Amino acid sequence: MKFRRHGLIASTVLALSVMATACDGGGSNARTPAESASSSEAAAAKVVTHVLEPKPDDPHSLLHPGPPLTGAIPAGTTVNGKVSAQTFDGVPKVGAVFFGVGGVVSAHYCTGSVVQSGSGDLIVTAGHCVYNKLFGGWNNHIVFVPGYHDDTAPYGVWVATTAYLDSTWVASQNPDVDIAFLKVREVGGGTKTLESATGADTFSEAPGYTNAISIASYPLTAKKPVGCTATTKKYSDTQLELDCAGLPDGASGSPFIASGDRLVGVLGGYEQGGNSPTTSYSIYFSERIAKIYKATSGS
After folding, report:
1. Can you give the pLDDT at residue 144?
2. Residue 221's closest CA among 118, 136, 151, 127?
3. Average pLDDT over residues 204-216
4. DSSP β-ladder status, 86-87 and 82-84
5. What is the pTM of this model?
6. Per-residue model confidence as pLDDT tens digits over 247-292
């Protein structure tokens, strides 16, 4: 992604991490993932379960407790007829995804959100935020801070323990399955679940291609998120497209939230989320994607 990739690579160098976005894509007339992926690959796909935390040590962090700053995701501002994301205080169920480097919580590089689950400890982000061949494979040290603002973790700091991805993402970075579900645990222990503290969106299988949504994203190094409202449309059988200018480096994994707190997409997929500052993409939540989500509960 030309627009989002450069800042993410800079963050990766600073954090000595192995994660970043990987590829440039073509324009709207480019061959779509649905047209290029083989049917045999899809038929052979399985859910990969990967343990991220074989040694459960709490990372050190300069983040501190503090009151939440919450508000509705904004509509955005309109410039030259285009909606552009604007800064706001944040919402509890969306947060910044941080590197854990050398046992220390470092820079945030993606966005994640809480998704409803039986265990109450599940978040979702883009697959390339968790596994990327170009930068060494697995990022095994991922920290989620819901409602993050101003170096504050109002709902605690949560370490990712287990990742769930489609096997063809791991094997070939198939853009049609650029999604990861992560189970998390709270740093410092405790009995509350993440979902009980923040609320959650409901995973929506086969939501249709046209949805009025809100989207919240954490720009790299920013102290607060940005957000806007938009409408998705069909880009291909396996991809959604939306227009919202100014979605930043760090936006990968941002949730597409439709009415009724339904999760209908996450920023990623084609061109790993977008190759311009005005157009973004998400994978379509097909039965295949639902299979990954269902695997988190063993169903």
Report:
1. 98
2. 151
3. 97
4. unpaired
5. 0.87
6. 888 899 999 999 999 999 999 999 888 777 788 999 999 999 999 9
- How does pLDDT run across 13-41, given as a tens digit for each residue? 333 333 333 333 333 334 444 444 445 56
CA pair distance 193, 121, nearest whole angstrom: 6
Pick the CATH number of 2-295 from 3.40.720.10, 3.90.650.10, 2.40.10.10, 3.30.70.600: 2.40.10.10
Judging by beta carbons within 10 Å of its beta carbon (0-12, 13-18, 19+), is residue 51 exposed, middle or buried?
exposed
Q: DSSP per residue over 55-88, as a string?
A: S-PPPB-S-B-------PPP--EEETTEEE-EE-
**Which residue type occupies 181?**
F
- Residue 295 identity: A
CA-CA distance, 106 to 60, in Å (whole number)? 9
Give burial (CB, 10 Å; 0-12/13-18/19+) of 26: exposed
* Closest C-alpha to 265, from 295, 232, 237: 232
Q: Which residues of 194-211 are buried (b: 16+ CB within 10 A; e: fewer)?
A: bbebbebbebbeebebeb
**Cα–Cα dist 228/244, whole Å:** 7
Give me the residue spans of the domains in the chain: 2-295
Structure tokens at 268: 């990623």
Encode pLDDT of 118-165 as tens digits: 999 999 999 999 999 888 899 999 999 999 999 999 999 999 999 999
Of 44, 46, 79, 164, the residue nearest 115 (C-alpha): 164
The end-to-end CA distance of the chain, in Å, is 35
Q: What are the structure tokens assigned to 90, written together?
A: 């944040």
